[in-house]
Amino acid sequence: MTTSPARRAAVLLTTLLAAGAGLAAAPAQATAPASHAAAASRAGDTTTVTFTVPDCLKCEITLHQAIQGRQKVWQTKTKRAHDGAVTFTIPTKRTHGLDATIQAPWEGANGTTTGYVSQVVFRYGHEKPGSDVSSYADVKAKKRGSACWAGTDASDVTIPLEVRKVSVEGTTGPTKATAAWTSTTQDFWAPMERTFKGIFGTQDVPFCAQP
């Protein structure tokens, strides 16, 4: 489905409320080129995307595609993890420039306690596609990350996620937030935005920059 975004700016700023101070998003940085299959996606092609989330049995995930220069935001219905996984079957063309918001059961609804909604990070700064980042120690000190997946032309893909409960300063005091990232660094699109304790928090859907 398509919906009009709350803001029509070309690039929406990402904000993290942490340690009593806001962290504003920085300008987009250069990104690695997206890696796609040789054949272009046909209009009728679909891809089944499965996120494994063994560390968050009741996590809820929603997918969006928002691309800079376009005024429409595409999104899925929200799905809850079942047997440690969340599966979506979506048009293949929607995987390119895809982002995923994640809501954990220890958080307030829709970011009411943190002031933001957590995004899945597909690539942290200084990590190359294919690198292993399965430990929270690998990501908690990272300062930048991309919430934009370059996508795939495959008919089926499984992406393992790591999810951690993280203590942060929330809207009314200390609270729990969610750090979520792919355990193997993915091909990504710009922009690279600020992260805090591994958390990529947004107050709006991030707009991805097509290479």
Please describe what this structure looks like.
There is one protein chain. This protein starts with a strand and ends in a 9-residue tail after the last strand. The chain has one helix and 16 strands. The protein has one helix at residues 136-139; strands spanning 2-3, 15-18, 21-24, 46-52, 60-65, 73-75, 79-80, 85-91, 98-103, 117-121, 123-124, 144-146, 156-169, 174-182, 193-194, 200-202. The chain has one domain. Strand 13 and strand 14 (174-182) form a beta hairpin. Strands 1, 4, 5, 6, 7, 8, 9, 10, 13, 14 and 16 form an eleven-stranded mixed β-sheet that branches. A three-stranded antiparallel β-sheet has the order 11-12-15, with no helix packed on it. The model is unreliable at 2-41 (pLDDT under 50). Residues 1-24 form the signal peptide. InterPro entries: TAT_signal. Keywords: Signal.
Taken together, the total number of domains comes to 1
- Give, in order, the helices and strands: EEEEEEEEEEEHEEEEE
Q: By helix and strand content, what is the structural category?
A: mainly beta
Low-pLDDT sequence parts: 2-41
For the termini, the CA-CA separation is 24 Å
Measured by DSSP, the beta-strand proportion falls in 35-45%
- Helical residue percent band: under 10%
Keywords: Signal
Write the layout of secondary structure elements.
Elements: E1 2-3, E2 15-18, E3 21-24, E4 46-52, E5 60-65, E6 73-75, E7 79-80, E8 85-91, E9 98-103, E10 117-121, E11 123-124, H1 136-139, E12 144-146, E13 156-169, E14 174-182, E15 193-194, E16 200-202
